[in-house]
Please model this.
Amino acid sequence: MLRTAVLILLLISLKVFPQEVKVPEVTFPIEIIAQKQEKKPVLSPPERLKIGEKLQIKLFVEDVKPIPPYDVKPPVLNFKKPSSFLGIPEENALMSDAVDDFLNGRYFYAKEKLEKLVKKYPDAPFISDVYYLLGLVYSNLGEEKNAFNIFVKGCSLDTASKSKDYSCLIGAVFSFKFHNTQEAEQLLKNVDITDDNSLFWHGVAFALQDKPKQALELLKDIKCENLDINFINYCRYMKGYVLFANHQFDRSLKIINKIQSPEYYRHLLLLKGFSYLNLEKYPEASAYFQKFLEGYGSVEKISDYAIYGLGIIDIKYNRIKEALEKAGILEPRDKNLAQNLYIKVAEELADRNDFETAFVILQRSAKAGNAYIDYLRKKIAITAYNTGNYRYAFLMFKEIDTPLFNLYAGYSLLKMKRPVEAKEYFEKAVRLSESEETKEKALKYLSDIYFRLKQFKEYLLSVKKIKQFDPEYAADLLGWYFFIKKEYKKAYQAFNDPYMKAVSAFNGDLLDQAYSIIKDRKDRKSRFLLAYIYLKQENLEKAREILKELSKEKDKIGEEAGYLYAYSYFSEGNYSKAAQEFWNYAKKHRDTVLGRQAILRMADSYYNLGEVEKARQIYRKFIQKYSNTPEAIDAAYQLTVLEMKGSTGNIAQQIESFIKKYPNYPFVNLLRIQLADHYLENKDFEKAEQIYRQVIQQDVKE
Model:
């Protein structure tokens, strides 16, 4: 009697009696529910990283200095002959005769007289003219060292005259010839005149010291035609060279095309070739490089640039094999040029998304030399990422260790499904980066990881920081926070994204607001949400109209809409129509999760129509065909309950068998209660009590 009383109390606590146990509803993946479920999209790292700034075409001027002014001859000044009578005064007579001798080509006679003047009359009023004229004489006799020394002495005179300034100027020119640029600069400082001739040679000093930008500042406004006639050709060459070195290829070509001097011919061929190459005029460029190799061969080092230029043209014409052959030729001759050419090939391949071959070429380039080590490390790392070699890319990004490459390291770890480790690199990028773009990207990925890890305190702090860069994005992140917390009205207020704003309104029972946002939107997910709104408003006809339209497309929404269309008939009790629609759906979506669910719902429909045997056969066939699937467990459960209702076979054995097979099934406790009821009806109070207590201890409320 006591045991019976205890069992009655247990039944009351469970609020279940044998006659009230019904066939439980099955949990469906999609059904007419009060809330629309959405998941925050995962922020995926980019599939491809940009290779970054491409390597510049190597200009030969980077390694080959301009030609010194070897062919520049000292200008002949208009010397004033001092007056004399019958050889008196002697210094005047000597100077006057020396001028005549020089102008008539009698250089030895002029030399003799001028040397005597320097030695005997160092204080003559025209002594600066004497030194300059003597320098000219030595120069014309081919005695350049003596000429240079005389010009230097003339430059040091304590006088102010044009001939003294020109002694300094031409002394500097000779210093350039002798590759003594520092001495040339000192001589130029003693020049008092500030005309274009003087300015030009100051510009030359910068150019010969590898300072093309400073040289251009001085040379850009000089018109070579206005200089001393002896300087014109060299001015054109030097100005063309400096413009070229400053990447002003059009202007350079206009000047160097006027040069006739053979002294500069080799350089001019390369200057023109690379100018046309950089202007993307490849036939013209190729012609000049070929002309260089035909005229000068490939023995001299400077010819490496002609080979290199032709290799670049091969790349432009998609002749990758030929370009690689030229890089191979350059490897033993000029490792830097070979490396550069390999890299240019790899860049071209990367532009065509052939990252695997690009990766191989970059590794080959790395073995060719050391000139581009840092550049290559970055390129190889990025190319490894772009080929899907994320572990290798991560190790290289980690080693490079700059804020941008910390960001890339985070990307690699996300690709490897290691978000916790990725978080550390994104945090480092945020902490160290001075680039707002890098910091913003890192913060966005950080917020996504915090959300996934449910670290909401850190998540909200990152959202606050993102707001400084992208307020709309931050608003949506805040919306997702409220959405996941099921604070739908706050989510509705926060979201900037119209769709999620409408979903939040729908879930917060703000149907009018949800409808007003979504009603005119034509995208598929918005139309699907509109169908939900109509279903919630019990406007089934409008809902079905949208669902039928959406179900025509072969995408996820189309699949879900088709299923929901059939289920709308099931939900209103139109089981005959539901059975037909579920069957139509199952045929269209064979071997999909929803297709299998549709078969079960079809069986449920027949059961509700009273066609129990038909339902039973469908369940049994389903279990045989789709064994070991979640849907098969659903079918087994339904079949177990069905058998219980039909009172066929050993009920206790059927239930115990199901519970043993599927102890974690969502509705297993309902079956346990049904089993306890069975034992209670058969007076097996001990077993019944044991099961009831088990259910209570698990604190499961059905």
Remarks:
- Residues 1-31 have pLDDT under 50 and may be disordered.
- The CA atoms of residues 481 and 491 lie 8 Å apart.
- Residues 1-24+625-702 form one domain.
